[in-house]
Amino acid sequence: MSKPSSASRPEATVAPVTPLGYAPAVMATYARQDVVFERGEGSWLIATDGQRYLDFASGVAVNALGHAHPLLVKALTDQAAKLWHTSNLYRVAGQERLAERLVAATFADRVFFCNSGAEACEGAFKAARRYHYVAGHPERWRIVTFKGAFHGRTLATLAAGGNEKYLEGFGPASDGFDQVAFGDHRALEAAVGPETAAIMIEPVQGEGGVRTVPGPCLRGLRDLCDRHGLLLIFDEVQCGMGRTGKLFAHEWAGITPDLMAVAKGIGGGFPLGAVLATERAAIGMTAGTHGSTFGGNPLAMAVGNAVLDVMLEDGFLEAVQLKALRLKQGLEGLKDQFPSVVEAIRGHGLLMGIKLKPNAAEVVRAAASTEHLLLVGAGDNVARVLPPLIVEDHEIGDALSRLARVFARFDATLLKS
User: What DSSP element (H or E) covers 167?
Assistant: First the structure.
């Protein structure tokens, strides 16, 4: 039987869902919570039934400036009335402005714009390999990465992360990546060989369990790369754009990479990614070597520039640091109050992780949702706490109170068992 034409179909509404929380027409690649949000205000999301949720997930660190930030809304709507897309066959004024501002604020000399973190990581892989090719060493194409990392869902970024769960069923993993254990310095030294082109790391692992790389280790990576003629790549897709209280997390260590993948917070909710590179690292990326149809389009550039307007304001990042201190102190207090539930508090800035006792992470995250508090799961029994950078102190206190109620219920259940 043929389907009715779109013109004869009724107006779309919120469809019934399967037990896994997705409408039948949507490909079942996520186990979704059965809630639909229709609007947001700052740190809050409002569902179709009018219920308000305190959003400490921030779209997995994307909504850095919260929901419906007036400057971002104005930038997007103003640009939408002028021009949406021309392609990269022509100059894009907003692209040039954002690139110049990122260069002025970071280590970088060159910027390539794309649409997502996975694309940014792929661009960094290509730039590193191309650098050695142009330098006369095409044999140097392998990249050392770290177990527990997450760099995206493309075939190459999955191989870089090395997570067997995500690789299963997609054929042989893309070659060119050598994983070493997180924090194993001897294994890292041994992994560097004549085919190594670069080392890639997240200064703070997000998906892998919110594990922070200590400053001395990042400085050691910089020294190791310099000794062996390698490029150092940072993936700051999640930990960058103010989330740790500096514009980028590596700034705390006092060193710089050669290449960096950026996304998520840079667009404040609009799809935007970027590869930042030194002049040296970008030398091989000439006309025709890489591209993106939508990357750096006028809409994304308008929003990206508005995000920077806010984040580069005097005092903004310092305020993030103070909020982060309040959040961390509160989480440490909950750890002391509920030792049977909370094992450790991890993270940096407003990228925090609650390391829970075995098998508690998903239960706690689901229970938090019943308290109308949104968190994000992570590896190693960790619940991520990712409030927007504009979160208010009283909202942090509110979230801590809701978490305390969740832990108290879980604690009571353990005592009964």
Answer: helix 164-167
